[in-house]
Amino acid sequence: MKKILLLIAIVCLFMIHKQTDAQNYPDNTTWYYQTAETISYPVIEFNYQQLEVSGDTIINGEVFKIVDKIGLIAYVISGTEYNREYIRKDDDKVYWFNRDTEEITLLYDFGAGTGETWEVTVYDCPITVTVDSVNYSDYNGIQIKNQFVSDENGYFSGKIIDGIGHSSSFFPNEIYYLCKYGNSPDGIYIDGIRCYSDASGNNYSFMNMPCDTIYTQLINDIEEFSPQAANIELYPNPATDKISIKYGDNTCSRVCIMTATGRLLKTFNSAAVEIDTKDLPDGIYLVQIICDNNIFTQKLLINR
User: Fold this and answer.
1) Is 20 helix (H, G, I), strand (E, B) or coil?
2) Burial status of residue 300 (CB atoms within 10 A of its CB: 0-12, 13-18, 19 or more)
3) What is the pLDDT of residue 140?
4) pLDDT of 59 over the 90 cut
5) Which string of DSSP letters, residue by residue, matches 156-173?
6) DSSP per-residue string spanning 226-243
7) Taken in order 169, 142, 137, 146, is the CA torsion positive or negative?
8) Pick from 123, 96, 122, 125: nearest CA to 109
């Protein structure tokens, strides 16, 4: 009798695993995200980070997928994260294991509509994500929903592609740094999704380049302009404790603050309206504002 009960239990666990796994991202699902690093201003090296689902594990009784980080890992995580993450996709929701709190947090809610919210916990920082609007884009002839989201500090703001993930960085890496250390990872950041593919035959390219290419480029080759040329206003300058930015009619996705020699100090994944500069010593800095395919650069003087 005990053997029969044990066999039934094993079969039930197997069926639960298969049903749950069917909703999860299948093995070999792969994302390529571009990374950018300022080598010596105005030269930028563009590299990539590859995320690949490599198998299953059990966390708190639930089947999670193992996501290996391949490529420019050591620089991106810089000793504060590890070479793999754990996610679970259940219908329209994607859950992420927050190893710092040893808790499961909701990373994506692909089913959320305009005005709806969810909370992501990174390290021990809760981030409330709000869906500002929804539209559809044609990817390889398929209409896929986009959620345009924001949060109070702009940590996870941007576009989320249904079933695929955030268009800037799948995992909110920079939130980790900002929450724990008050600044961004030094010198390198994840700079947008290049490719996505899975075992179901979905294969999408989001940038006009090979998924795993590495190259360097002069900033001047990416059409660098002064902010004034696009009616972008940065003030006050000189600054003391904060600066404000007006973007005019431009659609901007990132703001970077660098030293005068091009070392990255802070980066924001959305068009930040107000930036705290209290922790920056007096001196000259470069503020880069990335809008569409253009980069606008302005010198900033901090003088107290």
Assistant:
1) helix
2) buried
3) 79
4) yes
5) S-EEEETTTEESS-SS-H
6) -GGGGT-EEE-SSBSSEE
7) negative
8) 96
Nearest to 28 by CA among 197, 248, 280: 197
Distances 132 to 129, 138, 151, 205 between C-alpha atoms, Å = 9, 20, 10, 25
Residue 227 φ/ψ, nearest 5 degrees? -55, -35
- Global confidence as pTM: 0.67
List b or e across 111-133, with b for residues whose CB sees 16 or more CB atoms inside 10 angstroms: ebeeeeebebbbbebebebbbee
> Coil, strand or helix: which one is 244?
strand
Do 134 and 148 form a contact (C-beta atoms < 8 A)? yes
Distance CA 148, CA 32 (A): 21
Domain boundaries, the chain: 25-218, 223-302
- The token pair that represents 8 in the structure block: 């039934």
Q: Taking residues 45-62, what's their average pLDDT? A: 91
Q: Looking at the domain that runs over 223-302, which CATH code has it been given?
A: 2.60.40.2470
pLDDT digits (tens, 9 = 90+) for 214-245: 877 655 554 455 666 678 888 998 898 889 98
> Is the preceding omega at residue 227 within 30 degrees of 0, hence cis?
no
Query: In the predicted model, what is the mean pLDDT of the chain?
Result: 78
